[in-house]
Amino acid sequence: MQEHSYRILVINPGSTSTKIGVFENDFLLMEKTIRHSSEEIGKFSSIIDQYEFRKQTILEALDEEGINISKLSAVCGRGGLLRPIEGGTYAVNDAMLVDLKKGYSGQHASNLGGILAFEIATGLNIPSYIVDPVVVDELAPIARISGFSLIERKSIFHALNQKAVARRYAKKCGKAYEDMRLIVTHMGGGITVGVHENGRVIEVNNGLHGDGPFSPERAGTVPAGDLIDLCFSGEYYRHEIMKKLVGQGGLVSYLGTNDAVAVEKRIAKGDKEAELVYDAMAYQVAREIGSASTVLEGKIDAIILTGGLAYGKDFVESISKRINWIADVVVQPGENELQALSEGAIRVLNGEEQAKVYPNLK
Predict the structure, then answer these.
(1) At what angle do helices 224-231 and 238-245 cross, to 10 degrees?
(2) What angle separates helix 337-349 from helix 159-172, to the nearest 10 degrees?
(3) Is 57 helix (H, G, I), strand (E, B) or coil?
(4) Which pLDDT belongs to residue 2?
């Protein structure tokens, strides 16, 4: 039983929206998606310049919902494209703010998460945090070797949701996440398969534009030689090739849509091409999970399927029938990112773990 009651404001900025939620311990008091028009966003020359505008819209939304911000215990934002760090909950500090503002690993709306959390929390004299950003890097040294000395494998994946579902499953089993051996597969616009050993993701495919299964809009691993030929064919610019791999790859490339529900409807109407491509995506996910199982030498407590695609019964079944001989398959559909952010902050406030310090490296 929790001794204290904590009220957490969580913030998840997207390119054209800001999702916010207020939690009282694990109970959701309110949730809202604030939409930003192209005209509003277009006034700013950079993503970071939007923070004061977004801050004001958040405070106005909270006021409209009758939330008394003076009762907040902490503010937690989505982690952005920072330098590679291990997983956990981090207190927002000056070094983090510098890297978020300059976009250490790239410009993305998620970089606003820590900044907005800090700005709102500072005015209330309460702590601000981020939790498990996409740049979480806990790869084992052997997993970094690509096979080509000029390129090192990178860890970019759905760390927030993967870690959250892994912790929830461990808790359900009456165990600590740090004592579990799991394979967690996040299936959304991108697909990442993470090997979780004793609280660390020691192996995972680069879900942005690296390797692994193809997804609704990403190509995943493609034959390197053929890709090189395409790059030097003279028909495409660099940014065009990148867009074909990320955004126009996967289901979009074959079927012209990234909407899995629409694909399932086409299959139900007898579209054989849609059926083949959709099953190929499930096949590649299962193959990646099978490959990942060798990292743990087959000693796996469970395989967890999560993300938006995990709502698709036939898709999940197509994966499960290929891998259920390895370990129990647990389905936890959706992302629940707001809840994951709140849980990370509450673990620190409850004293279950200490807030980590973002490194001040120059």
Answers:
(1) 140
(2) 70
(3) helix
(4) 47
